[in-house]
Amino acid sequence: MLPQPGGLPRRRLRLSLKLKLLGVLIPLSIAPIALASVGWYETMFRSSMSHSAAITSQYSQLVAENISQYTDGVSHALDPLLIDLNFQKYLKTPASDIVSQARYSLAFEPLIQSFIQSHPELLGVVYTDRKGKILYQSYQKRMNYIYPFDADPFFAALPQIRETTLSPPHSASYLLDKPEEILSVVRPAFDLSSGQISAWLIVDIRAEYFRELMRGAYPDKDGQILLYHPQSGAVVANQQMDRPLLERLRGAVAEHDPQAREWTFTSERASYQAVLEDVKIGGWKLVWVAPLDAITDGVRRSLRWTLMIAVFALALCCFIAFPAMQAVLRPLDKLVGGMRKLPRGRYEPIPQPAGHDEIGFLVQTYNRMVVELERMEREVYQSKLREREKEVLQLQAQTNPHFFFNTLETLDAYAALNKAEAVSDMVQTVSRMMRYNVRNDDGWAPLREEIAYIRDFLNIHRHRNGKEVRTEWEIDPALTDVPVMRLSIQPFVENALKYGWSPALSAEEFRLTVSAGRIGSALRIAVRDTGVGADPAALAMISRLLEQGVDEADPYFKRHTGIYNVYRRLVLVYGPRVRVAFRGGLLSGTEAEITIEDG
């Protein structure tokens, strides 16, 4: 049975019901919004990533094409020089023939000077060949001809270069002025008579020129664009880059799928998006990289606004829902309050709700029951229990307040948990049971209606305990219309559940059987269970009641009125034609048997 708080505790109960409703309403409201927000966020995030990658890919392709076209232009600008007759003679001239070198170089130097003048970003052009000759042309710098070219790794690697390439960044240490960081377009020079590579032309280009190309294409401060040479790991970035990020980027480029043009990676707990494009010279790659936080900042702001709107909507719903819930709880509170007064002999009807739903019908039926109880009690007290029919009605009515009080407490608890389906089922069940209790039929009913009443009782028991009792029905179909005394079987079912059943018992350990049949001309009704069994002392008291009869004032039956009331009503109605027997013990289950001889 649920607790029976009163006064201030009842006020606290009402508040707890509202809070429980809020506890149910919040997940029901937040869960769909959260799921929709997460799905929306994922969609917007992917869309933002795809959009950013598409735009960035266009920028990267543009820069890569510009760099490729520029280096191709520099290389092709050397074509007139490479096929010049004097240049070809210079290729074949030994390093010791200074006079011939001077004569031929003076003839083709105007071609180099014209080339340098048309490209102000160039530091100069270096010529070197297999014969050991070195020649340098520049308007800005001067060559240090005593520089140890053989010891310089850049010059030492020239014999392996078989096609035009763009070198990694290196310092122009072979110049007399302050060295600058440069990238060099290296063009092999073929001896046209032999078809062999005899020399190399090195066009020195300031590294800053490539940075300017990249800054002009992508000025966004949140992203970085850089030239990356996978073979050497060299990088030319449009702005200063953190060393940990640069090292992680090198690893990410090496690890990513070569077919993928875009991917994400993590560096120092921050995520980045990268886009890769090929530069058509020297194996260079153009890489764009930007933090995901910068790309998805707008998406996160939109998500925050969505959540703020959701919280506001939830608060508004709760504000509107509380008065509605109060309208549902108010008649239930009054109904429970009225039921609390019944044991004290105060039969006060409660105001009828405006609606005609199940709760309204329950209140209406309760009010009729209160009036009927008051009338019955008045008649019983007036006749001082001298008439048998009135005593039967009074004994029957004594069970009603107790049962319906417990049921309403359960209804109150289910309503607090927002279990509308269970509340509806219980209200309809209780309504049927109350109709059965208060109808005017002189206390008689067909056996099938008494069985239906027991089924409703077991349904209420299932709701109250959260577990169904395994029940078997062995009813002779020929006896379903036989009239029996109302509420003559249900108390034995209740007694079996009270003393023999426990929620801890499984369906195999506890089985309730209700049977009705004929033994000769007598009607036999039995209720048996396979539960833990009744206490021997209780069985002894019940046996004494059945064999000798005891007074209602006995302390035991003051505490256990159910069996006493039904036995008393059976005796009053059927007289000597009825026999009631109890059998069983601890761990062996209990059987209650009613035998009624034909009158």
From TrEMBL:
Gene3D superfamilies per record: 6.10.340.10, Histidine kinase-like ATPase, C-terminal domain, PAS domain
Alphabetically ordered keywords of this record: ATP-binding, Cell membrane, Kinase, Membrane, Nucleotide-binding, Phosphoprotein, Transferase, Transmembrane, Transmembrane helix, Two-component regulatory system
Membrane topology: Multi-pass membrane protein
Membrane-spanning intervals of the chain: 21-41, 305-325
One GO CC term on file: plasma membrane
Stretches assigned to the HAMP domain: 326-378
Protein name: Histidine kinase
Organism: Cohnella zeiphila
